[in-house]
Design a protein that fits this description.
This protein is α/β, with parallel strands linked by helices and 128 residues long. It is built from five helices and five strands. Helices cover 45% and strands 19% of the residues. The longest helix has 14 residues.
C-alpha cells in the first residue's frame, strides 16, 4: 500500500507551514494540517489518514493525550503515528514508543526528505 494521506498536528504555525510545503509541494501527499489535538479529533474521521504526524509539546492537549484520544476512535486504532519533537532524550523517546508511536522525527528536521522518511516508516509498519 502506498502512503497518500497524512494528518499533521502542530500548534506552531511556522512549523505547520514548512511541513505543509514539504509534504504537499515536495512529496505530493494529501495533507490535513491541524493546529491542536482538539482540532485533529474533530477532523480526523472524515479525512481518514494513513499516517499521523504528531507534535509532542502542545498547549491544552499534548501529543500523548492526543494519541490516546485518537486510539479510541473507530478505525484509528492501528493508524501509524510518528511523533515530532525537539525533546529527544532517550527516556522520552522510550515513552513515546511505548505509547504506540512507530518513530520519532527530531526537530529541526530536513524538509526535503521528510516525505521520504514518512513513506519509509509507513512501509516498514505495514502488516505482512
Amino acid at each position: 500500500m502506498q502512503l497518500e494521506r497524512i494528518m499533521h498536528v502542530e500548534d506552531d504555525e511556522s512549523i505547520r507551514t514548512v511541513v505543509e510545503i514539504a509534504l504537499t509541494d515536495v512529496a505530493g501527499f494529501e495533507l490535513l494540517s491541524c493546529d491542536s489535538g482538539k482540532t485533529a479529533l474533530a477532523q480526523v474521521t472524515d479525512f481518514a489518514p494513513q499516517l499521523i504526524l504528531l507534535d509532542v509539546m502542545m498547549p491544552q492537549m499534548d501529543g500523548l493525550q492526543t494519541l490516546e484520544a485518537l486510539r479510541k476512535l473507530p478505525g484509528l486504532e492501528h493508524v501509524p503515528v510518528v511523533f515530532m519533537t525537539a525533546k529527544i532524550q532517550q527516556t522520552e523517546k522510550q515513552r513515546y514508543l511505548a505509547a504506540g508511536a512507530i518513530a520519532i522525527v527530531e526537530k529541526p528536521f530536513e524538509p526535503m526528505v521528510l516525505g521520504d522518511t514518512l513513506s519509509t516508516l509507513f512501509q516498514q509498519n505495514q502488516p505482512t
